[in-house]
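Q: Two folds, back to back.
A: First:
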Amino acid sequence: MSQNVRILASGQGWRAMDIICTSGAGDRPFEERHGDVCIAAVSQGTFRYRTRQGTAMLTPGGLLLGNAGACFECGHEHGRGDRCLSFHFDPAFFEGVLAGVPGARSIDFTEARLPPLATLAPLLADAEAARDEGDRAALEEAGVRFAGAVATLLCPQGARKAPPGRRDQKRVAEAIRLIEDEAERPIALSELAAATATSPYHFLRIFRDVAGMTPHQYVLRTRLHRAAVRLAQTADPVSAIAYDAGFNDLSTFNRRFRAVMGATPTAWRARRQSGPPAG
């Protein structure tokens, strides 16, 4: 089996990897072993995955689920190659995610995969964009979101999460103040969680419940808002505004600005600085 494995980002208890496999029908599968808890999102290609939970066909949009220490095989008898965005978690880290999911009981997956689900599509798109842009903070958040989503989908039906209480609302308010003060620098999910004395998954959940978006989305919106104001009020170069706001890549800034503001930075500036139309 021929693989190109690239580590995209890592932190305490987690890793994100881009795995490209070029094996085909003529290549015999061989036994491998998951060193930790694995959730791999399939971006391209199809392959057969066999592990102790069963055998499944993985297709784009689906999630491969691997238990720590479990042996597995992947086969490509139906086509050549695949690409996966693979998240790996230490068992203790994943157990911390489970602690925040109502009804979740076991760290071991009972299924070999999750099929392409509509509820997972936006998360997969966000994760692939983070991979392509090299956005470490977004990859960390995507990994925790995937872990929470899988735990939620596999836990017994009927379990309900409690709404955020005053203490959690206070934690989110503290995190928002930190973001507002330092939005231009990289801010990791783990840093925000540690500052509020919560686990990354619990913090992610309560932040989304209170603020209506994830922490990384809030950071991006804050940066874009400040850039939009500066574009309207100054003649500073677009590149300088982008870098000062915290974007390391001008093309990423332009793309995200247009998606949120509905216009390119240059067009936005032209509209705002031209003044109101004559009456």
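A: Second:
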Amino acid sequence: METIARHITIWNNCLQIIEQIIGPQKFDTWFKPIVPISMNESTLTVEVPSDFFREYIEGAFLDVIKMTLKRVIGTDARLVYMVRPVKSQQPMVYPAAHGTTPVNGTVSINTAHAGNPGPFVYPGLQRVNINPRLNPVYCFANLIEGECNRMGVTAGVSISDAPGKTPFNPLFIFGGPGLGKTHIAQAIGLKIKEQFPDKVVLYVTGNEFKTQYMDAVTVRNKLTDFLAYYMKIEVLIVDDIQDLLGQGSQAAFFNVFNHLHQSGKQLIFTSDRAPVDLQNFEERLLSRFKWGLSVELRKPDYATRLAMLKARCFREGVNINDKVLEFLASRVKSNFRELEGALISLIAHATLTHQEDSVELAENVTQSIVGETQNEVTIDKVQDAVCEYFNITRDVLKSPSRKRQIVQARQIAMFLSRNLISNCSLSTIGSQIGGKDHATVLHACATVSDLMSTDRVFKQYVSDIEKMLSPTV
């Protein structure tokens, strides 16, 4: 009790001095969350919420901390940091639902020969532990849901409750980079392991499967053991399946797919393109990819981008001015990955240069690192791009013409205006594109979304125009 009282008393004395120097706002943000752990001679050990937290206070307040420790403890004073384990975090500090990496139980594999029977099986073993290879950070609690990914999240939750027993088998998630495909796929695996600990889950990339297959066929009679290994998986997650190229590896995967699907096991795939757009794939595999549910992830809208930024700040335990977050959300529109990168860059710049977070600093960060176009997209620019692409005039675009090409051009203009322009209401879009009401705009957006999922040529129209408006994306 005496030792505990000593380290707490010493730290409290330090806090009183630090608060007087840096002020109550910074003190509440950066020093209140710190917990004194122990005191050994002149060494005080404290616990901080995260590595970023430690790096920030060392960068921003190192001189203050040194001076205070010397004054309270003495010239030999030393401060040691312990990063708080995720599992010890309170939910409001770190909302991740999974503090530890999940593991699979022991699996029995009948190997035909001695030696290495598969990519994760050790020589001479018939009962092996298969690493699920899931990252606990990619849980549903850390996933921001919006219109851009709601279908994928909803399907993922349904699968998690009853893997292999829903119509969503396989689940095929596709979309551009940084939109959350891996996050959703791994979140499903994590949730399944949480609810069904005995199920054998495996996350693997398409390129890894191909490499493992090639390793198996280079050793005599090992292909059978390789297939036997994969056929023990109950939830197979294959990320970037577009990289699963090669006739031999696709034939092996075809056998794995058939066995798992017929056995009621769950299959989850991600890709940077829709099944219909995959190149150099066997037709029999493509047809099986379409058996279940295909879900496209789209670029996040403004509200979803802002929610993601706030959630990441919340998770890291940092406070960023709302105006700054709103600026980042309006500037970085491509995907979650670039948005998150811009936020981390902003925090790093503020930390290293001891600057307050500001819109000016955020603007400098996005200009030099994110590479977002500085020309904001407007309804006028959308109309100009659409008219240029379809070789029509603005007057024709806004006219009441019911010609198919004109109607589709008008609908694409409404769709892109809604998706590329922040804080722009449906009524505003409709009034500037032919004097339409918000219901017409909503119908146009739904029509374009439906056509993009079924008509490759139409989807290319939209993609080409979007690139005209956002050349850096």
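Q: And?
A: The chain has a mean pLDDT of 81.
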